[in-house]
Write a structure and sequence with these properties.
The chain is mainly beta. The chain folds into two domains: 3-40; 48-163, 2,3-Dihydroxybiphenyl 1,2-Dioxygenase, domain 1 (Roll). Helices cover 13% and strands 52% of the residues. β2 and β3 form a beta hairpin. The chain is extended, with a radius of gyration of 22 Å.
Length: 164
């Protein structure tokens, strides 16, 4: 007899604490013994976010020199094509430049990428000292959260967040 595997999604929403939790629980049913076993599944882990850029050098200068990210690895898989992974402290940030598709690089205003900092005030001062203009914010949607928005060289919205 074969075992039957069944996955169930359990969702818990706790509005007072802005908590949204989703877990997948897997059961294995042995038809012969009519036993039910629970298997714990690990949630998927975000490994990287990919951003297409028009100028790799300009983008690396912004993300490394201005925002402080570090280059993890970079390579050129073909002519006019380069890839650079930036260390994202858990999830990396992948920059891709494809010379044949530079005109196709664009970003929606409904998408942003966020970076967490210890002190938003210090980061804003650091950004200003590096010539970053058009800082939107700070915005404080709750007593524990504040953030600002800036744009990368290609117009991607970058959010800098402080969470206390």
């Amino acid at each position: 007899m074969k075992a039957v595997r069944l996955s169930v999604r359990v969702i818990r929403i706790q509005r007072n604490y802005n908590l949204y939790e989703q877990k997948f629980i897997t059961f294995v049913l042995n038809r012969k013994t009519k036993s039910l076993f629970f298997l714990k599944q690990k949630p998927m882990k975000l490994c990287w976010v990919t951003i297409h850029v028009t100028d790799m050098q300009q983008s690396k200068q912004f993300y490394c020199d201005v925002l402080g990210l570090k280059i993890k690895r970079e390579f050129a898989p073909g002519p006019g094509f380069s890839i650079c992974f930036l260390e994202g402290n858990g999830a990396d940030y992948e920059l891709i430049e494809d010379a044949s598709k530079r005109d196709e690089v664009s970003f929606s205003n409904s998408v942003s990428v966020g970076f967490l900092v210890d002190s938003l005030d210090e980061k804003m001062a650091d950004l200003r000292s590096k010539g970053v203009e058009n800082i939107i914010g700070p915005i404080a949607p709750s007593p524990n959260d504040r953030f600002i928005f800036i744009k990368d060289p290609d117009g991607m919205t970058v959010q800098i967040v402080e969470h206390k």
